[in-house]
Each structure stands twice: as C-alpha cells, then as structure tokens.
Amino acid sequence: AEAATERQVKEKEDFDAKVQELFPPLKEGAWAKKDWRLRQKAISQLIGLFPSSAPESLTAALPLALKDTPDARGPFSTKSVEMGEQILKEHSGMLEEAISAAKTLVTERQEAAAKAEAV
User: How far is CA 38 from CA 35, 41, 76, 78, in A?
Assistant: First the structure.
C-alpha cells in the first residue's frame, strides 16, 4: 500500500510539473510564430494530460484556442482556456485527495497491525 501511495505522489508531482511547464506559456501566447511546431507539440502534450472525464468538446476546442494569442481569442476561445485551466486544477485536486485517502488507509493499517502485535 505504501508503494502505491508513493506511486500516486510521483504521478501527481509529474502531472503538476507538466501542467506548470506547458499551460502558462500556451495560455499567455508566449510562442513565437516561427515556433509553431513546438507550440503544437506542447498543445498535444497538454491535451494528453486531461482526464478521460473531461468534456470532449473542450478537448476539441482548447487546441484551437491555444493557437491564438490572448488578445486574438474570442469569447468562446477565452472561456475554453479558462475551463481547461479549471479542469486541470480539479484533476490535480482529485489526485491530492486520492493520495490523502491512501495515506490515511496506510496509517490505519499500520495502527491495526501494531495493536494486533501487542495482543
């Protein structure tokens, strides 16, 4: 159980690091026009981070919205970027909750084992 918890912690750390690396530059439109291939690669990687529960319409709209700079985005594109950010934050929170629950379970099992050994 501890190994599973450690794996979950590593998964969350990797997820958060990737989101932090990819999302802010895409949201801010920080890519130069000549770097469009790198931008496309970053968009693909970011979309790959979305949980399967993310709305399909969002994962279809977000790549198009992230191609534009913030001032060139229309209201729909702006909302797509905001919702994408929200879903990524929610997924990170869900990973954190799963880790917390797993740690609680490990602690409870350790306490039960200690009580059983004491008897």
Answer: 5, 5, 24, 21
Give Cα 75 distance to the centre of its chain: 24
The residues near 116 (Cβ < 8 Å, ≥ 6 apart) are none
Helix (H, G, I), strand (E, B) or coil at 68: coil
Tokens of 62: 């977000």
CB 31 within 8 A of CB 25: yes
For tokens 């890519």, the residue is 31
Rounded Cα distance between 50 and 31, Å, is 21
Task: For the chain, give every domain's residue range.
Answer: 2-118
d(CA 119, CA 114): 9
Average pLDDT over residues 51-56: 94
pLDDT > 80? residue 114 = yes
Spatial distance between the Cα atoms of 24 and 18, rounded to a whole number of angstroms: 11
Number of H helices, E strands in the chain: 4, 0
Rounded to two decimals, the pTM is 0.85
